[in-house]
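STRUCTURE:
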């Protein structure tokens, strides 16, 4: 099993920045892909950014150029640097790992508002 714990969410003004973290533990050797997803009220959960074990990244068009996904050298912590935040980025952000099985974190709320 893999356990994922997100942190770093909060309230930020439009144009501001936040960095989310996702700490992975357990059978992390089994993880092939890790990523960030988000779900706004009344909307479906959507992909924000993912990174493969080899380091290949994919971003949603809506966040390209503003968000950056990265990880530490031990591959135990995934980050999402979010810059130039917009009100439409408001959502619960989830970390997900995929390998033999899929695991989700509990989510962290990001609210962009003046």
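SEQUENCE:
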């Amino acid at each position: 099993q893999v356990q994922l714990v997100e942190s770093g969410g909060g309230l930020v003004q439009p144009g501001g920045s936040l960095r989310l973290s996702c700490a992975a533990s357990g059978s992390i050797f089994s993880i092939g892909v890790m990523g960030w997803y988000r779900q706004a009220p009344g909307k479906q959960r959507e992909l924000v950014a993912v990174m493969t074990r080899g380091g290949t990244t994919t971003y949603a068009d809506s966040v390209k150029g503003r968000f950056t996904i990265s990880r530490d050298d031990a591959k135990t912590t995934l980050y999402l640097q979010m810059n130039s935040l917009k009100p439409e980025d408001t959502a619960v952000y989830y970390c997900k790992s995929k390998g033999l099985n899929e695991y989700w974190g509990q989510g962290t709320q990001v609210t962009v508002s003046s």
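REMARK: The mean pLDDT is 95.
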